[in-house]
Amino acid sequence: MEQEAVAAAASDVADLLELGRVVVTHGNGPQVGEVISSAKFMTLDQAVGCTQGWMGSALAEALRLEMSRRKLPDRTVVIVTRVLVDTSKAWLKPIGPRLSKEEVEEFTAKGVTLVRDPRGGVRRAVPSPEPLAVVEAEAIRSLVKEGFLVVCCGGGGVPTTEEGSVEAVVDKDLASQVLANSLQADNLIILTDADYVYVDFGTPNQRPLRRMSLQEAEVLLSQGQFGEGSMAPKVEAAVRFLRGGGKRAFIGRLGKGREIVKGESGTEVVK
């Protein structure tokens, strides 16, 4: 987990805390792949739980340092989170780093499912079921009301059903949307490695969308304008959040949280 990214996230969170209450979620795509590769005895759901602790503690420490620098109290709490899922609705999600030619040949020989990353290269792919509810939502709500800064739903949360845990990974953006709607949050802010949502991405006609209506987002999603496993779930999460009662949804670059909310950067999806 890059220290620069962790520090940028902590700075964004501290900026946003000046505007209201904040709940922090995060991904784990590269890290969960590393855990599975190095600890072959772990199942996918166990690896997600492992990375929640690993990355959550890194974020908590970065937030402590950022709050200290700003002379603000640190009330960060990290929760290992479970997410109730519908296994009948699942798709393939890329995890881990991009693979070398030798690794592709090795995984192919072992029958491991691989997919092309929209941003280039080949990655391992695993089942990703539809998130329905965050098990710890009430605990998170209570902590937020008491003034705590909660870090949760790391890597989309540990997938579970009424019968028990599931060997899969949950999309972090969709899990964040489910949590945001259950908390009746006003805003959903998705920070990533792109300044904007783009149409015709990677072509000479590529252009940024600074503002996008709910209807336009749904049409562009249906046209396959956004990369599966990258921007598509972010736009889908924004659409679902607004459909579920949210007021504003933003997508933009990590490190620019304040500018994104002010409309100076990033893409806003509006009703």
Automatic annotation (TrEMBL):
A biological process from GO: L-arginine deiminase pathway
A GO molecular-function annotation: carbamate kinase activity
Domain of life: Archaea
Signal peptide range in chain numbering: none
Domain Aspartate/glutamate/uridylate kinase: 4-251
Pfam families noted in UniProt: AA_kinase (PF00696)
Claim: Transferase is one of the keywords in the record: yes
Gene Ontology CC: cytosol
Keyword annotations: Kinase, Transferase
Annotated InterPro entries: AceGlu_kinase-like_sf (IPR036393), Asp/Glu/Uridylate_kinase (IPR001048), Carb_kinase (IPR003964)
Record-stated family: Belongs to the carbamate kinase family.
Protein name (Swiss-Prot/TrEMBL): Carbamate kinase
Organism: Sulfodiicoccus acidiphilus
